[in-house]
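S.,

Sequence below, as promised.
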Amino acid sequence: MGKEKDIVERHLLEFPEVHKEALELVTGQKWEFDPVCLRHYPVHVPRDPGMVLTFMEQDSAMMLADSVVKKDVLLSCLENQTKPDPNMVERLMASIANQYLTRAQDGKSPVPIVGGVLHYGDRPWTCLVSLSEKMNTRCKDLPPVFQDFRIRVVDLGALPDEVILHMKTDLRFFAWMVKAKREGRPYTVLEGPVDHPVTTLRGLMYLSGSKISLEETEKIIGGKEKWTMEQVFTCLTKEEVNVAMLRGERKGLRQGRQQGRKKGREETRSKDRQLYSWLKNANRLDDYERALSSEEAFDACYEEMKRETGQ
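The prediction came back faster than expected:
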């Protein structure tokens, strides 16, 4: 996490079209506006702590603005997590309150603020997502004046395949990798162009547990503007940084071997029953005992049965 996380994941969400898709995941609805209407919103400007709350760093904040009437419409504040944070409810609540208070201090009208969390972790999000849950009680049991606060968490590794496959931005490559890691399955390459190959490559490297500098990434990409995931995947493979994908492949191979052994046992039992039935009908059960003495003897007797029965 830390600085490297900010470099990789926050910067991906700072592309307007990616931020819009993340906003749609968080809110569970489509937004009918052009991503160019989103502009970066300052969330790290130092202020007088005596006037407003201390600013808390946010991973990505963008303002949806109406260019015709020159009016702010909605502020979207998104957080990225690679590990569940038990304090995320309070963190996001403070960040949103901070934005409302700052606009008031600046003499600006309040606008709706949407906050949410994208979870990139190897394990599901398990932390509570509302104040009432953290108080271990139900809202209806609380005083009527109690103001609950609930956060929206999008667990990328838990998204259905069809949702990921219908995503339009580079965020789908992140979600696909997280889900592959989560389920321990090999990473398969998604079709379609990679709009931001440098950021996406660095992000996938980060999620796979590898480290690479911006200069190294740009050298790999080589200034080429149009990339597909197959090309990016090739870079990952060449640099031997697909640790997570290999982990999934190893698990898949283990499962395959287990299934193979199970299938082999079933086939052996089937052959054994066939041979026993044939030798019994031929009044040759003594040969059955000899057939069980070794694999070679069994195979020889089984082949004789196939020839005699025309199998």
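The two ends are 63 Å apart (CA to CA).

Coffee later?
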